[in-house]
Design goal:
Elements lengths: L1 H9 L3 E8 L3 E7 L5 E7 L8 E4 L2 E4 L9
Antiparallel strand pairs: 1-2, 2-3, 4-5
């Protein structure tokens, strides 16, 4: 994550939300040189199989996460 953030800043992005840890991932939010906001996230709970989300009807497994391997 830190190397990717450094490369983005070198390419002209600005950090909006610095790298931070939650209970399921490490994430950051950036703004590219054209003003578009984007986020980086690396899950850290032992894999996608362990990621859960709380919805109005209860807790469900997340199955639509894509690991692009960056």
């Amino acid at each position: 994550m830190d190397q990717t953030l450094a490369r983005a800043v070198e390419a002209g992005a600005r950090i909006v939300v610095p790298a931070n840890n939650s209970n399921m991932n490490r994430y950051a939010v950036l703004r590219d040189p054209y003003g578009q906001v984007f986020g980086l996230s690396r899950y850290s709970v032992g894999g996608v199989d362990n990621v859960r989300a709380r919805t109005a009807t209860g807790t469900v497994m997340l199955t639509d996460l894509v690991d692009i391997g960056v």
